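Moderator note: this is an archived Q&A kept for reference. The question asked for a predicted structure of one protein chain; the sequence and the answer are reproduced below.
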Amino acid sequence: MKILFALAGLHRVDRGAEVVFISLASQLARAGDKVTLIGSGPQRPGAEYRYIRAPAMRREWFERWPTLPMFRNETAWEEASFGPGLLSVFRPGDYDVTVTCAYPWTSWALRRPTGGYRPKHVFVTQNGDWPAYANNAEFRFFDCDGLVCTNPDFLERNSERYRSTLIPNGIDTGRFTPGPAERERLGFPTNGRVVLMVSALIASKNVEEAIRAVAQVPDANLVVAGDGPLREQLKQVADEVMPGRYKQLTVPPAEMPALYRSADAFLHLSRDEPFGNVYLEAMACGKPVIGIDLPRTRWIVGDGAFLADPDDPSDLVRKIEAGLAASASSPDAFVKRAREFDWSNIARRYRTFLEEVVAA
């Protein structure tokens, strides 16, 4: 099967969606499919798939740009800048099926009328399912031949309207494994316990809530790996409520396993994220997970995580303390849960669904 994955950030950044598409492409190409990726970054040596570059402007350049219909945030502006390059290199006849998680501009480019053959199109709800169910503004033009729902909520909401399937994200269990901490090399605090967040510094990730909760736990430090428009605001809050116990940093993708291994517990407080890859990465490295007790979160992490009442801030503090206490116990249960999501299993489920869509 000839498969195309298209996304502006491919080969330029390693956020959740980019990691998902690259991991799937590698697995599918290894199994014998002809897989192509189109993104805005450079070639990467050793890739098992074909890669085509289409330029795009980084979303950070658009953080202060106006919010308009079809340009609702810096991500939409970045995607719009990717559209012309994508159109110039996309050859519909080269593919059986196209895959993206970006709407509107990337989806529109892949679905544009050609007057001839148009490959089947699959949309993945990596960033949410609102394009599929909303019926206003640009969302009323959404269309796809198959919808991959990354959690049960999305499947229930959309299965009657689209050919849909439930497939979670995955984890490279050969790369994310338990191991020794490397705190000094990574710039972690060397005194006290460390709670780690891996998060974009945006409002929906609730990093300020995490700062205020960890501040109430004696001798606990908070390390936040990520960047975003709230970087300075969050530093100011931390300086006020937990001076000397907060660290913001960024690390290259190759350092992510060492990052998790160097923490005592992992914290993630997003309430509306379609699927938190970071939960799996932390568990695969043997780290206790602390989060908000929501059905979607529990579906990912199982019953071994420390999930707090979303309406009780004091319960979050208690769960952080419990998670830190559990860090000294055996990591086997966390690792076992993560291995259920190995990319080889997830890729097989994608392959089955793509085959169904193409044959329909």
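Archived answer notes: The chain has two domains: 2-170+342-359, 183-339.
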